[in-house]
């Protein structure tokens, strides 16, 4: 099998689960299995890996076309840690493919939020990159845009709970009591190399509450907001975020997060109010 045949097989399956021209697609991925297949089944050498990944990204671009948009997360928490953020070079912490795009693909541009930025390409790329949202998951940012503009999420060989940051966005919309706004001040370097002190916020978890998102691909599929397939052992799941939003919202608000949230030492109780109202961080 050639690498082109492998990517074509994946493309066929992605088409079957709904990926189409004009789609706006947030791609969350683990490419470990894909690279293993490329090496063992297609004889792609290490020195050919960049060429193969270019072909993979190109395949996704061809599928959504010029009227579509791709978003790859390059989330980083260096800004929260006091290490600053440089939009040109700060690496993400959520996937090898995303950092490879940051380093190798000049046709993508980066959105501005220092903790929750995306590399974006396509029809809405400049609109997304122009957003000045201070709040990571607020109404002025990419997550509301995805909800309100028929955004989709592709889980490429991962489970939803590993990559559905959209779930944290829904937590903020629901206003869960164990999360609260935290404001961070830090060094920010823009695309022109200008560095200044800026303030950004995110809806952080009370660190005394042990909690995770627990959404599974199967639950999304069973509830009609996603479709799934396999290609050469790779799990592919395509979720309609606009349809998923009320499903997640209702489960968190009215079902104590039975299918969306997991806790080790906390019971969701809407009557007690916020565990912490807000925080400030990064002040010298």
UniProtKB/TrEMBL annotation:
GO MF terms, alphabetically ordered: aminoglycoside 3-N-acetyltransferase activity
EC category name: transferase
GO annotation, biological process: response to antibiotic
Keyword set, alphabetical order: Acyltransferase, Antibiotic resistance, Transferase
EC number: 2.3.1.-
Pfam families, per the entry: Antibiotic_NAT
InterPro entries with a match to the protein in the record: Amioglycoside_AcTrfase, Antibiotic_NAT-like
Domain of life of the source: Bacteria
Catalytic activity: a 2-deoxystreptamine antibiotic + acetyl-CoA = an N(3)-acetyl-2-deoxystreptamine antibiotic + CoA + H(+)
Family: Belongs to the antibiotic N-acetyltransferase family.
Protein name (record): Aminoglycoside N(3)-acetyltransferase
